[in-house]
Amino acid sequence: MPRRKTTRGLPKNISCPQCGKRFCTATNVLQHMNQPTSSCYGASLAEEVGLLASANFLEGAVHRETSRPREDAEVSGTHWYYNDEDTDMGPPTADVSVRPDYDVDPTPAVNAYESQREQLSGSRRFIETYEGCAEMFPGGETFMDQFRNDRYAEKRRENIYFPWASRQEWEFASWLLRSRLSMAAIDNLLSLEIIKSVPLSFHSAKELRSRAETLPPGPLWLCETLTTEYPTKEPPLLFYRNPIECLQALLSHPHFESHISFVPRRVWTCAAKICRIYDEWLSGDRAWSMQEALPPGATLLGVVLSSDKTNISVMSGNCMAHPLLISLANIDKHIRSKTSLHAYLLLALLPIAKFTHKNTRVRSLLQDRLVHQALNIVLSPLKTAASVGIMMSDPTNTLAAIHTACSQSSPTDYTNFLKAIKPLRLNGVVEPFWKLWPLSDPSDFITPEVLHHFHRMFWDHDVKWCIAATGAVELDFRFSIIQTLVGYRAFNEGISKLKQVTGRDHRAIQRYIIAAVAGSVPRKFLMAIRALLDFRYLAQAPSFTMRSIDRVASALQEFHNHKEAIVSQGVRADWKIPKLELLQSVVPSIRQSGAVMQWSADITEHAHVEEIKVPARASNNQNYNSQIVRHLDRLDKCFRFDLATSLEHRVNKEGGDEDSSDLDVDEEHEPDAEKIHPSDYSSPTRRLLNYFSISSSLLLGARPSARKPYCTFAMATTAFHLATKPSLRLTVDEAATTYQLPALEGAIATFFANGDTCFQGREHATNKLYIWHKVRVQQLSYHDRNLLPPQTLRAIPPASANPYGRYDPVIVSVHPQSDWPRSGLAGHSVSQLRIIFRLSRSDLFLAYVQHFNIATNVSPATGMHLLKRAVGGNGQRVGEVIPLTRIRSPAHLVPNFGRVAHSRLTSLSSYELSNDFWLNKYFSKEFYYALSLT
Questions:
Q1: What does the alpha-carbon distance between residue 753 and residue 217 come to, in Å, rounded to a whole number?
Q2: Residue 797: is the preceding peptide bond cis (ω within 30°)?
Q3: Interacting residues of 229 by C-beta distance below 8 A, sequence separation 6+
Q4: pLDDT at 42
Q5: Cα–Cα distance between 338 and 600 in angstroms, integer?
Q6: Can you list the residues of the chain whose pLDDT is less than 70?
Q7: Strands 865-869 and 320-328, how do they pair?
Q8: Measured CA angle at 788 (ends 785, 789), to 5 deg
């Protein structure tokens, strides 16, 4: 380990808001951030170039540091402090330590982008944490402890890659083990002469896999044969792992260390407790009430379970698996919702038995009972952990209803028992898995699920209603001529005949359905469909205030106020829709368990591919379950070994460096021991391309070789990126002809006459125009100012393949500075981007846009603005030249088709030949929030 720098007895209690490095005084922090060689130097000056809003970041750093308890201190009582975002409110659990074994107490580093996001958000949150919980005790094993205490630890002191000869051999072996190659294919590969020339310590697939079995294991797999109450064709086998061990693996995972919270909290917009904020599970009322039921000092872990059948065989075979996945609700939802981070672990493969009973309903009943029987076995350690010293009642009387059914008919008399449970709305399970599980009740732990309750319901009902009301041919034609932005799906063949529709398709159809049916259906019918879509969009927000929760409830109520119009249209006979009834539980669930988006099955459905289907396809198509768990166990060992050796290798490498620097040397150049932290080595989040950061580094001279003018630049809320080489080089007259813009020269002259006198007379007309067909635009999210993926805007002139060109609509700021998206359309206009250019003798990037007039404010039926093209007295479209930096966001327009869409319109001509458009706020959730929540 590197020698730590002497601090002359002063504690390091203040963190740099950019990199998280700790210092003794605020002066040291400022000196560190003002060093030109420091990575924090650019971010500290970004405020001066207009990239960051002003804020007292040092004060925020002090609050963040002092609010985090030390290992030798208990969590402080209920206290108040503000922060710009939800951060970790507590220490690790008492008996399950998640802190790596380092010589110093590491503080999770705050990276440069996180600090930038905090500065940009500008909204403070006042947080009340629960008093006297999450008490921490010494002891426990960390991830690295398990690696260092392995039975081969002595041999790994000489070679950390044992049982492999070297790092290079481990990388090759790891690639073979992770690949989908069969054992025969691996043997063939190892038998090649070129491979034999490499000195490997293994020579066959069998020897390779036997060595992999000696790697430090994760949670072990168990197998148990279940006893059924009725004969089956084959004995049902249950493959499962201990859930406590799986939770331990998540808690001790180095990637998740700084993204786990343990203390329930109440988040407010101000200290007066007027407006509550709900986002993470720990910010809901349910976590707070559960913590109150626990003994003082106890730590609350929220267990997330997901189960759904999935097909294994392809095209034939009818083989299915029933996986049970487990995760931790304490992990930040933006981390848990990323499928690439594997925050969901496969806990069990539930048996799918083939009962010999002739009655289909009885077989279904027996399968349900078998599933709960298996869940009782798998989850029994969790029940034991939750039930020590706690007694709970059954608030929903579900167990009482089961007792009533059993008193009326014997559970083994399947035919009569099915009749007895039907009026009680039971599924026939006598021993539900959640029985005797404290703090667990279906009304609480079954939360609304976005993928099936929102999107699937939309496809099964809303779309069918619209098709019936509009007509399949007409609606398909309307969808086929809607132009979409880059990255968004187009429906060239319509939607009525779509097969094998996925959740992504459901969301894509939602973007255009309101504008597509507008004018072809009765007004109240459209209002009902629009209100239900508003409900879905509002309910998918990442965080909620009390006001936004009221909006969600109001949208659902508006649907109920107008739903009879759907019945009157003859497309629906009654309202016996279970998923529609479940929508009533969304608002209570937000208050109890936080944002519903964190419970979406998108993540677990994707996990089925990597946890079930990929291992199954790597098998020999026999005994799928046993081969799946063996494959996953081998991959888990490889992953844990790879991570542990990577951390150990870097620790040893940095620990071997000699610290010969003088104590007076600036701390930026010191190999500080606090830098040896897993978050320095591998980040658990995929980094988005950050044009804000690139623009800042260019302005601060971090890339002296970059060509000027810089093609990446940013304003406070929007960043831009252009290709280094322009698409075209034309004169003004040539550009006016190519882009069919006769007023281009006059617009350029007007722009420079009003704001720039570097060109006299028609001097600008003799300049070459450097023209770009595309520009990349990056924004910040509405709720928390997180970085959004860049989007491409096009201004492509007419060509033989597209005689009308492609010109995307944009939101343009009337003034140089604006607070988009918080301000909505106030101070903004809607325009069409016609050309992106720069004069050869100017460093200013410009755009020629043609404007739209807002004919109405908001249509009550569609909830959208109706736009008309701005036309001058001469009949020409009104346009002007503006700085490119005045563009704030992409927009999306849909032609106002009226009662019947014109039959001559095509996907290429529909926008250029139309004059009336709907400003489609539904094309993205961020655009929807900007136009609806202001």
A1: 73
A2: no
A3: 366, 369, 412
A4: 40
A5: 11
A6: 1-124, 314-317, 388-399, 403, 653-686, 755-766
A7: unpaired
A8: 170
pLDDT of amino acid 101: 34
In three-state form (DSSP H/G/I as H, E/B as E, the rest C), the secondary structure along 239-305 is EEECHHHHHHHHHCCHHHHHHECCCCEEEECCCCCCCEEECCHHHCHHHHHHHHCCCCCCCCCCEEE
Q: Using CA atoms, how far apart are residues 520 and 522, in angstroms rounded to an integer? A: 7
Q: Is residue 106 helix, strand or coil?
A: coil
Dihedral angle computed from the Cα positions of residues 291, 295, 296 and 301, in that order, rounded to the nearest 10 degrees: -40
Within 10 angstroms of residue 766's Cβ, the number of other Cβ atoms is 13
Q: Which two tokens stand for residue 720?
A: 């831009």
Read off the tokens for 414: 């399947």
Six-digit token string for 635:
């991959």
Token duo for residue 886: 């005045």
Name the pairing type of β-strands 728-731 and 320-328: unpaired
473 contacts: CB under 8 Å, gap ≥ 6: none
Structure tokens at 391: 């007694």
Report which of 390, 380, 383 is spatially closest to residue 294, judged by C-alpha positions: 390
Measure CA 245 to chain center: 26
Residue 139, phi then psi, degrees to nearest 5:
105, -175
Residue-level length of the chain: 934
- Omega into 821 within 30° of 0, i.e. cis? yes
Per-residue pLDDT of 466-512, as tens digits, reads 999 999 999 999 999 999 999 999 999 999 999 888 889 999 999 99
- Dmax (CA) for the chain in angstroms is 98
Q: Kindly list the distances between the CA atom of residue 435 and the CA atoms of 104, 590, 619, 729, in Å, as whole numbers in the listed order.
A: 45, 25, 37, 74
The pTM of this model reads: 0.76
The one-character DSSP state at 77 is -
Could you write out the DSSP letters of every residue in 696-732?
HHHHTTS-TTS-SS-SEEE-SSEEEE--SS-SEEEEH
CA separation for the pair 521, 541 (Å, rounded): 29
The residue type at 609: V
* Contacts by 393-399, CB closer than 8 A, 24 or more apart: 394/441, 395/441, 395/443, 396/441, 396/442, 396/443, 398/432, 398/442, 399/432, 399/435
- C-alpha to C-alpha distance for 320 and 842, rounded to whole angstroms: 65
